[in-house]
Amino acid sequence: MLRIEGLDVYHGYVQAVRGLSLHVKEGELLAILGANGAGKSTLLGTLAGLNKPVKGNIMFKRTGDTPKDITGNSPEKMVRQGISLVPERREIFSSLSVLDNLMLGAYHRYRSDKATISNDVGEVMEIFPALKGREKEMAGTLSGGLQQMLAIGRALMAHPKMLLLDEPSVGLAPLVVREIMSILSQLKKTGVTIMLVEQNTRAALKVADRALVMERGTITISGSSAELMSDSKVQQAYLGRA
Length: 242
Ligand code: ATP
Hints:
Belongs to the ABC transporter superfamily. This is Branched-chain amino acid transport system ATP-binding protein. It is a single chain. The protein has helices spanning 40-47, 75-81, 98-104, 114-127, 144-156, 174-189, 201-207, 225-229, 232-238, and strands at residues 2-11, 14-24, 29-33, 55-60, 68-69, 83-86, 162-166, 193-197, 210-215, 218-224. 40% of the residues are buried. The chain is globular. The N and C termini lie far apart (37 Å). The model has no long low-confidence stretch (mean pLDDT 92). The strands form 2 sheets. Strands 6-7-8-3-9-10 form a 6-stranded mixed sheet, with helices on both faces. The chain has a domain at 83-159. By secondary structure, it is of the alpha/beta class. The longest helix has 16 residues, at 174-189. The structure holds adenosine-5'-triphosphate.
């Protein structure tokens, strides 16, 4: 579904992604692991159109479509192609209501698709029952876990084919992390392809089909979740086992 070849991305003079190549199959949940500063957020940002690569290309193919070159597309174009980002720190609008935050996720089809939008809000509430009845509450008053659910819900309002999540578990209690991960598994079953950036390696490997480790902007280890779980380097560096 997604194929990246030889990607180089810079922030000014700092090279954050170096000659990176990867692919994601349709319906797959791919975890991207690695330490702070490895380039994980930059990679997701590039797929969401927020960072422009200087080299390499990104091809995206939806079922029945011919592959499209989406390298360097604007964020709006990426959303229209079916790629939605749930950013790190969630970036919900604290002083807007839960409902308004969700509506913003559908802004690109607000004119053409008004009728289905309220239906979609209902569907998001089915996925996240904890948000039900809180539509009018200010998003900033929600707990961290509910804000994360709202951020995912907002991304789903765009009808993504591919969901990019940047550290959804950050700052959340273990029980809430489990809830979020279980929701990601459910979403996968509905056919959404997922790229999950996580520092919570254990939680990510539990839900992912495949995973890769990024170091200094490039992929150093990749394999099935089971393979990474039993890899001694992953165990030492990312699972806290000696
Ligand atoms: P983290 O979990 O800390 O976000 P990460 O693996 O997502 O880590 P990135 O945020 O992509 O890593 O950062 C990769 C490199 O790019 C780091 O060296 C970082 O300092 C640098 N970098 C990231 N954003 C910027 C920016 N806006 N300006 C300058 N350098 C940046």
